[in-house]
Design a protein that fits this description.
By secondary structure, the chain is an alpha/beta fold. The relative contact order is 0.12. It contains twelve helices and six strands.
């Protein structure tokens, strides 16, 4: 009896339900094609791949929009208003008054995408698009960091850098400590403008390390949804593998063979191993088996560097 194939036959219907009810970009046919292309006549590979797919963290377009709304209105504006009233020893306020204060903060916020290469395809730009089209931020309140002028920025109370996700934190560290941003920091300090970094999804451990090392001094990081080592596919803290028969070690051994034979690593950027898809895109710290493409390997979802 092939236990790998038995598991696959038993769990495929569950995968179909996930794809039809929670995913909104990839279809069941897309996933089956990916499995057939890369694991044809390979029941062990299909077994490991299906386990990963069933535990993949997928954010639909609606999920991302709701996280953005939550982060902006609850975790930034809401916290500012709450702190103000607590400092005044007054927490019993009409909802209309609180909403008015939130709207005032929103009108006095300037939003900037966190960019690495200053290219249109970068994910920070998609977050800016959702701010304008879904959160009703005025187009005059968004722009690029290299265009910021003192006479313009001084009109605002908050400067909010935005991005969709942070994994290793290297892009955030480089951006925040760049020469261009140092100039922006000086302007904000001069006019008492508070600086935030609003990210939809973030790896908690790397962010804590950056904070501890003082790499994020002067900016308040707001993460709408956090990922931990429990979400890393090949982490001992992940519960997807059967620990009674060294399954995680067998899976690593299997994907190491794939790396050698087909040139596709099972570890993403900075050796991270998350299986995360954000609607129609995925970060480079997600598993390369999902996005890498070679002569012997087909990707499930293409990246700009596939």
């Amino acid at each position: 009896m092939n236990t790998y194939q038995d598991f696959f036959n038993d769990k495929v219907p569950q995968l179909r339900v996930l794809l039809s009810t929670q995913w909104d970009y990839l279809t069941y046919a897309n996933v089956i094609e990916w499995l057939d292309d890369n694991f044809k006549n390979d029941s062990e590979g299909r077994y490991y791949a299906l386990k990963i797919l069933l535990n993949l963290i997928y954010y639909s377009k609606r999920d991302l929009e709701e996280l953005l709304d939550f982060g902006l209105h609850e975790k930034i504006y809401g916290e500012i208003v709450k702190e103000e009233y607590l400092n005044n020893h007054n927490i019993y306020i009409p909802t209309s008054e609180a909403e008015a204060k939130v709207n005032e903060l929103k009108e006095h916020s300037y939003f900037v995408p966190l960019l690495d290469s200053n290219k249109p395809h970068e994910s920070g730009n998609s977050v800016i698009g959702d701010l304008v089209h879904k959160i009703s931020v005025n187009e005059s309140q968004v722009g690029f960091h290299w265009n910021i002028k003192e006479e313009f920025l001084q009109k605002f109370k908050l400067l909010i850098f935005v991005d969709d996700c942070v994994g290793s934190g290297s892009q955030l560290k480089k951006f925040w400590n760049s020469t261009e941003i140092e100039k922006v920091k000086v302007i904000c300090q001069k006019y008492d403008i508070k600086i935030y970094y609003l990210v939809l999804i973030g790896y908690d451990k790397k962010l804590e390390i950056l904070k501890k090392d003082g790499e994020l001094k002067g900016i308040k990081v707001v993460v709408c949804d956090t990922l931990s080592d429990k979400n890393r596919i090949f982490s001992n803290e992940n519960t997807i593998w059967d620990k009674t028969n060294n399954e995680i070690q067998n899976a690593v051994k299997y994907f190491e063979k794939i790396r050698k034979e087909r040139g596709v690593s099972f570890l993403g950027f900075k050796k991270l191993d998350f299986a995360v898809i954000l609607h129609d895109r995925l970060p480079n710290w997600s598993l390369p088996i999902l996005w890498k493409e070679t002569d012997g390997w087909k990707c499930l979802l293409r990246r700009k560097t596939s």
